[in-house]
Design goal:
Blueprint (H helix, E strand, L loop, with lengths): L7 H15 L4 E7 L5 H14 L3 E6 L10 H7 L7 H5 L8 H15 L2 E6 L6 H11 L7 E8 L20 E4 L6 H12 L5 H11 L3 H14 L21 H13 L1 H15 L9 H8 L3 H14 L2 E3 L6 E3 L2 H8 L4 H18 L3 H10 L7 H15 L3 H12 L5 H18 L4 H11 L3 H17 L3 H9 L7 H14 L4 H17 L6 H13 L5 H12 L8 H14 L3 H12 L8 H16 L25 H12 L3 H10 L9 H16 L3 H17 L10 H11 L3 H18 L2 H15 L1 H17 L17 H22 L3 H18 L2 H13 L17 H11 L4 H8 L3 H15 L7 H6 L13
Parallel strand pairs: 1-4, 1-5, 2-3, 3-4
Antiparallel strand pairs: 6-7
Helix pairs in contact: 1-2, 7-8, 7-9, 8-9, 9-10, 10-14, 11-12, 11-14, 12-13, 12-15, 15-16, 16-17, 17-18, 18-19, 19-20, 19-21, 20-21, 21-22, 21-23, 24-25, 25-26, 25-27, 26-27, 27-28, 27-29, 28-29, 29-30, 30-31, 30-32, 32-33, 33-34, 34-35, 34-36, 35-36, 36-37, 36-38, 37-38, 38-39, 38-40, 39-40, ...
């Protein structure tokens, strides 16, 4: 009587009533509760207790199969001897009236011989005659030493239950008790008893939820788990979420037993809820009305059943949407195990129709339609297409593609199918690169309108070039040469020029033809194509940055057809980024992307890559801001060498995180036979990493390989790739200045043509390092001057890093190595004081930028120069000079630059320079941030010690 958890009240009741019966006054004890709460176990305990205390125990278990035999339960319970002649009476309907009395006399004869304990399990399944007899007997037990203990299932089901055994009995004649489900603590104790006290909390919690507080389910689950994972709950082993993982299947059998006992109506509701949850409805609330609709039950009964099952523990409220869900996936899976597929599909057909009539969002309806299309229903296609639009707008391309695939399974006109295939091809391209190509190929075959054919062909061509099949892409474009519409013809021409970047031979051929046309008949070329030609000539080292930007700005101002705008903005933004006109580059990218381009628009990737290039030029590129996820199906070590990954590697190296950069490089597969500008970018980035790790020979190979590929594409300008300077530095690290010098000289020659401070300063630095001696010192000094003077005049009201996103910061990326190189040369020339000043500036600038590797190089150079301690603080309020603090205080008080200059007798330009330096040291972007930054260091800005 003490082995059952949390049944003390029931056991005490049994003990007291058994003692009362032994004293001669019996009664009916009725255990009423849901299936699985341990009612049968209480009857077993009662039988053991009665036998142990000298009572004769008679037992009967009821079942639905035996309910057809009148008095069958009582006959099994009392087990009359053959001499009683009762069995014959059962088969003589005319003598039934005398059988109850004979059975009662038999019971009295048993009781006269010994105190009696009768147990009837599942009395609700007894035949009606037996139930009437037992109810009548309960009225007469008070004079007999007989305890009648019965269990009765009482649970909220969809079908209303009939009257219970004690319905017509006085409360004085029966003692009823409802065993409650196990508490979480008791259930956890059972789990730890089975698997040990050191079972993980997650394992125990999963078992408790799957058991739902019902001893029937929990013990069956533990039996299965002991056979499948005897050491479960340790070493990170997770509880299975599918009944297929459980053997021999006691748990699934127990769940189905519970379900069968609830009746077919309840089973239909439970299985409908399980189906809706299993196929994605957990993302939205399953309402009582929806569940009633798909199961065919009444709304009121469904609502009551959900409440009852939640209190029982089989259901819970989802914390996200508040709808009912099963307490554990194993429960849900057991309900669906072996369920006929047609029954499951019918749930979704009814759910889709109901939600469509109710006016739910397209996606809510479409999730059901993906499982089962109602045959012959016209609105299915429209809903699936609308759902795809919703998902794509939310950035869930995978869901959008699934809806489009579902739509293709429905009948639709040829033109509409072609449009759907085109959309699907673009979405599949973003997830599995090769998957979109068959869709686009079929769409192109179905397209009939000239414009639709062109746009689909351009998407197919883009997909092909990104898969490394540039020549196949141009074969597709050549099939569009017969366009009568001049805008479409120019669109094909412009797209071909842009896509030619992916193949060096085609690129040369296309651009050469366009340049010849521009010389002979320039009117035939659109502004977009002419902008692409400016980009080509800038990359080839034929234009200065000033001339290129002048032409670009003129071309951007010319009216252009909307189909050609993205191409023009793509080329313009690239040139602007090379020219360090970062504000223009940002604006051009924004204008190009406002057309809501498909991922397979030829200009889409180009615009996104330019945006990444601009962020990297500012020193703000991060892998979180510009993710480059590996498409589905691409294994580790086979990722593509993309522009994003190249920038990520360089950014990580600059930050001193070479191990993280190495992981990216190791994940990329470089096929030496493939071509493309993104591969060239990645080769350069890998060379940067190898040089940082000290493998200068391997880095040199990468830089030279990048250079060979770039040169073969007529890309010579160092504004695109500084591979010559990088290779020269590798030669210097290997002790080969003679090999470094020609590369550095050629870099300087091309940099002088382009003429931007960043490119020119870098070339001067490397040339000075390769030249060495006095002349080399002069060249590195010029590099520092060019990079310092090349910063644009500061915006006095915006501050450092404002508006343009810090053009000065873009120069700082090159200024730091120039300061280090010049400082080392000064130290070697016997000028350590001047060297340390430059090296401290380099350290402070690198620190402010978060560039860990240049900072370490600057600090090492300082130590090599004989500095006895680390560099002084060059950031924060403590780093401000007296003049900077005085000017900053006046600016924070609301004084304009002109007023500050008049008060301190300084030129306005001087005030602006001091403010720019102050913004850098304080790490702020706006004039309005000055007061908080100055007050944050605890000093009084009005103190005379800070006056200038």
């Amino acid at each position: 009587m003490t082995t059952l958890l949390e049944r003390e009240t029931a056991l005490a009741l049994l003990s007291a009533e058994a003692e009362r019966a032994r004293a001669g006054s019996g009664r009916l004890v009725l255990f009423r509760g849901p299936t699985g709460t341990g009612r049968s176990a209480l009857l077993d305990a009662a039988a053991r207790h009665g036998a142990g205390n000298g009572m004769r125990v008679l037992r009967a278990d009821c079942s639905a199969e035996g309910a057809g035999t009148a008095f069958g339960t009582v006959l099994r319970l009392l087990d009359p001897p053959p001499c009683a002649g009762l069995d014959d009476d059962v088969h003589r309907p005319s003598r039934h009236d005398g059988l109850p009395a004979r059975l009662w006399r038999l019971l009295r004869s048993y009781a006269a011989a010994s105190p009696l304990l009768l147990t009837v399990d599942d009395v609700h399944l007894a035949d009606s005659a037996s139930r009437r007899w037992l109810a009548e007997a309960a009225r007469r037990l008070s004079e007999l030493p007989v305890l009648l203990v019965a269990s009765e299932r009482v649970q909220y089901d969809i079908a209303p239950p009939g009257h219970g055994l004690a319905h017509a009995l006085s409360p004085a004649l029966v003692r009823a008790h409802a065993p409650a489900p196990l508490s979480p603590a008791a259930a956890a104790a059972l789990v730890r008893e089975a698997f040990g006290a050191d079972a993980s909390d997650a394992w125990v919690d999963g078992c408790v939820r799957a058991g739902a507080g019902l001893p029937l389910l929990l013990r069956a689950l533990l039996d299965d788990l002991r056979a499948v994972v005897p050491d479960g709950g340790r070493d990170g082993v997770a509880l299975p979420e599918s009944c297929a993982d459980l053997y021999p299947g006691a748990y699934a059998a127990a769940v189905l037993w519970w379900l069968d006992s609830a009746g077919p109506e309840t089973a239909a509701v439970a299985r409908a809820l399980a189906e809706l949850e299993a196929t994605g409805e957990a993302h939205t609330q399953v309402t009582d009305e929806l569940l009633a609709e798909v199961s065919g039950a009444g709304v009121a009964r469904v609502s009551g059943w959900i409440t009852a099952m939640t209190r029982l523990g089989l259901l819970r409220r989802d914390p996200g949407h508040g709808g009912p869900v099963f307490a554990h996936p194993l429960l849900r899976g057991a309900l669906l195990d072996g369920r006929p597929e047609e029954d499951r599909l019918a749930v979704h057909r009814r759910a889709a129709a109901y939600r469509y009539r109710r006016g739910d969002r397209a996606e809510a309806v479409a999730r059901h339609l993906l499982r089962a299309h109602p045959p012959g229903v016209e609105w299915v296609t429209d809903v699936l297409l609308d759902a795809a639009q919703e998902a794509a707008g939310a950035g869930r391309d995978g869901d959008a593609a699934a809806y489009l695939r579902g739509a293709l399974d429905t009948p639709m006109p040829r033109e509409r199918r072609a449009a759907v295939l085109t959309r699907l091809g673009a979405l599949e391209f973003t997830t599995v690169r090769s998957a979109g190509i068959p869709r686009l190929t079929e769409a192109l075959r179905l397209q009939q309108g000239p414009k639709d054919r062109v746009l689909t062909a351009l998407g197919l061509g883009t997909a092909l070039v990104h898969r490394g099949e540039a020549r196949a892409a141009f074969d597709v474009l050549r099939g569009l040469d017969d366009q009568d519409d001049p805008v479409l013809a120019r669109t094909v021409q412009t797209a071909a020029a842009l896509l030619s970047d992916h193949d060096r031979d085609i690129r040369r051929e296309v651009h050469q033809r366009l340049r010849e046309t521009a010389e002979r008949r320039p009117g035939l070329l659109s502004p977009a194509v002419r902008t692409l030609l400016v980009r080509y000539e800038a990359a080839a080292g034929l234009l200065s940055a000033e001339a290129a930007m002048r032409q670009v700005r003129e071309l951007v101002a010319v009216p252009e057809d909307r189909l050609l705008l993205p191409y023009r903005m793509s080329a313009a933004s690239t040139v602007a980024q090379w020219a360090d006109a970062l504000e223009d580059a940002d604006r051009f990218v924004r204008d190009g992307l406002t057309e809501r381009l498909s991922p397979l628009h030829p200009a889409h990737h180009a615009l996104l890559n330019t945006r990444a290039d601009t962020a990297a030029a500012r020193g703000r590129f991060t892998t979180a801001e510009f993710p480059d996820r590996r498409p589905a199906g691409v294994p580790a070590g086979r990722a593509a060498p993309t522009n994003y990954r190249a920038h990520a590697v360089i950014s990580l190296v600059r930050a001193g995180r070479t191990a993280d950069a190495r992981r990216i490089v190791s994940d990329v597969h470089v096929d030496e036979e493939t071509d493309g500008w993104q591969l060239n970018r990645f080769l350069y980035a890998r060379g940067v990493l190898r040089a940082a790790e000290g493998d200068h020979m391997a880095a040199l190979d990468d830089f030279l390989d990048c250079g060979r590929r770039q040169t073969a594409r007529d890309i010579l300008s160092p504004s695109v790739s500084a591979w010559r300077s990088a290779a020269a530095e590798c030669h210097l690290a290997l002790g080969r200045p003679q090999e470094a010098l020609p590369l550095a000289e050629e870099e300087y020659r091309l940099a002088a043509v382009w003429g931007t401070p960043r490119v020119l300063g870098r070339a001067l630095r490397v040339l000075g390092a390769a030249t060495g001696g006095r002349h080399g010192l002069e060249l590195t000094g010029q590099a520092v001057t060019v990079l310092r003077d090349g910063a644009p005049e500061p915006d006095p009201d915006a501050g450092y890093a404002a508006a343009d996103g810090a053009p000065a910061r873009a120069l700082d990326i090159e200024l730091v190595p120039a300061l280090i190189t010049h400082g080392r040369q000064l130290a070697a020339a016997g000028q350590p004081r001047r060297a340390r000043s430059l090296l401290r500036e380099a350290a402070a600038t690198a620190d402010r930028m978060g560039a860990g590797r240049p900072l370490a190089e600057a600090e090492q150079a300082l130590r090599d120069s004989g500095a006895r301690r680390g560099p002084a603080r060059h950031t924060g309020a403590d780093a401000l000079t007296d003049s900077e603090r005085r000017i900053a205080t006046l600016a924070a008080d609301g004084r304009s630059n002109a007023e500050i200059g008049a008060l301190l007798h300084l030129a306005r330009r001087t005030v602006e320079t001091h403010l720019t330096s102050t913004y850098r040291k304080l790490g702020i972007r706006r004039r309005t941030e000055l007061r908080a930054a100055l007050d944050g260091d605890g000093t009084d800005p009005s103190d005379d010690r800070h006056a200038g």
